[in-house]
Amino acid sequence: MIRLRRTKVEKRNFLRLLKEWETARHELRTMRIFISGSAPLSENLFHQFEENTGFRILDRYGMTETGIITTNPLDPLKRYPKSVGYPLPGVQVRIVSQEGQKLKGGEVGDIWIQGDNVFKGYWKMPEKTKESFRDGWFKSGDLGYQDPQDSWRLYLVGRAREVIITGGYKVYPKEVENVLEKHEAIQEVAVIGLSDEDLGERVTAVVVFKKEQIPPPPTTIIAFCKKHLAGYKCPKEVLVLDQLPRNAMGKIPKGVFQNIFSP
Description:
Layout lengths: L5 E5 H13 L9 E5 L5 H11 L4 E6 L3 E5 L11 E5 L3 E6 L12 E7 L10 H7 E2 L2 E11 L5 E7 L4 E3 L2 E3 L1 H8 L5 E11 L3 E10 L8 H9 L10 E4 L14 H7 L2
Parallel strand pairs: 1-2, 2-3, 14-15
Antiparallel strand pairs: 3-4, 4-5, 5-10, 6-7, 7-9, 8-9, 9-10, 11-12, 13-14
Helix pairs in contact: 1-2
């Protein structure tokens, strides 16, 4: 029987909790809150967890270099899927273009952070420290946007280095992953760009299928995606693994896929 009052869990462990819930309905009356950190939750997992347990996960955003940056409110009704909430007191968030120009609300760009929470620099790495700051702002390397209609609530869309350029168009992997994770047969998915002579990069989905589901053919997965996204954003191929690789923080190091799947 679970007797915790609150717990912070990585995204991958929420998946494990859901599997456990399917076989053993633990008593959760003493539980106060579930908090997710490390990697943003998918919309599908956000809803699945609430439908199964009655708890709406509190998602927040932080980094080693900054500590906690933003958080969703304690009020469950004010926690939204795909959102990491609002900056903490004393923390400022700015969304900028690649040239460092501040963008309008709703536009996707680089996330810069300023505040007393930000570290001073990398130990004995002056060049990396210099590259990571501009005009007093720390360049997080993450991409996101703020909603001007909702007190500038922050949403993450991925890492800048993970953006896929295919046929001259930008594709944000997180957007595609959010769609694919809604497919009934998919347990987890990582969207990457693999080298392509014609397109520069081709959008590729690396999926883990649910064990209880019969794996559908790649054409079915691609067709499902096309119902929700523009054609250029949809995977050109679907690759299957038994599980996705993760680092100690629970994040998927997408760079390893280049070694796994590159010819």
